[in-house]
Design brief:
The protein folds into 2 domains: about 90 residues; about 130 residues, Immunoglobulin-like. About 40% of the residues lie in helices and about 25% in strands. It has 6 helices and 10 strands; from the N terminus they run αααααββββββββββα. The strands form 2 sheets. Strands 3-2-1-5-8 form a 5-stranded mixed β-sheet, with no helix packed on it. Helix 2 packs antiparallel against helix 5.
């Protein structure tokens, strides 16, 4: 009997990225984790060596020479070392600089809004999402609400607590400006596969840039404790090619 369900172990990792920002977040995580592993191995090695040498010196004093005890048990030898203090001051500084360079580049990319070809307004309500495409002037505005599907309406293969009645359709390979706000309380518009997470604040407009690289269906949820039905505000984004998106706009 296996103690681990290997197919489910993949759920502990990041979702497959579908935007440059999501790819950058995952790459930054892997870069930082590399330094974390190196530091952890070094610290554990040093601790193990100290425990081994101190244990030997105190448990077997007859076998430990006076020189050994003087080298490893003298407080002056352990607490005052100019070289080691220089090393453990400069090394973390270098590591921090190596982490800061890609981190600052990612922060700049997240805040940068390239000339958008499409604008989308997202409104958080209690407890559902409203979407509005403001680039189209028609007799009927392109505005719709998105509610979570109840369990009785789910079909085979649907995801529980993640399916909605009106999914948001967006084009791929298109620069999209997303404006997020709320009407009542704080919400958070978050889609892990797209690297998107922004607060929806009543009376304030928050902006982010979105560029989807591949077609697919991407799920998200409200990431703010917004009330009793906080866990029932799913987000479903269907990424399609540009012609299919135009057909979708005509049919809304």
């Amino acid at each position: 009997m296996f103690f681990f369900d290997f197919p489910k172990l993949g759920q502990l990792a990041f979702q497959d990225p579908a935007s440059p920002i999501a790819e950058g977040i995952i790459d930054l995580h892997h870069n930082i984790f590399f330094y974390l592993i190196l530091i952890s191995v070094l610290v554990i090695y040093v601790l193990c060596q100290l425990l081994r040498k101190f244990s030997f010196a105190w448990s077997q004093p007859d076998k430990a020479s006076l020189e050994f005890r003087r080298d490893y048990l003298t407080f002056n030898k352990l607490n005052h070392g100019t070289l080691i203090e220089i090393i453990w001051t400069i090394t973390p500084s270098i590591i921090l600089m190596l982490i800061a360079v890609p981190s600052f580049a990612l922060l700049y990319a997240v805040d940068e809004v390239i000339d958008p070809a499409l604008s989308l307004k997202v409104i958080g309500n209690q407890w559902y999402w409203s979407y509005e495409f403001s680039d189209y002037i028609r007799e009927k505005e392109v505005v719709f609400d998105s509610y979570m599907l109840p369990l009785s309406d789910l079909k085979e293969g649907d995801l529980r607590l993640l399916e909605v009645d009106n999914a948001l359709c967006l084009p791929t390979n298109t620069h999209i400006r997303v404006i997020v706000t709320a009407t009542d309380v704080l919400h958070a518009f978050a889609i892990p596969s797209l690297g998107v997470k922004v607060d929806a604040v009543p009376g304030r407009l928050n902006q982010l840039s979105l560029f989807i690289k591949r077609p697919g269906v991407f799920y998200g949820q409200c990431s703010e404790l917004c009330g009793v039905n906080h866990a029932f505000m799913p987000i479903v984004v269907k990424a399609v090619d540009l012609p299919s998106f135009f057909d979708y706009i005509k049919s809304v």
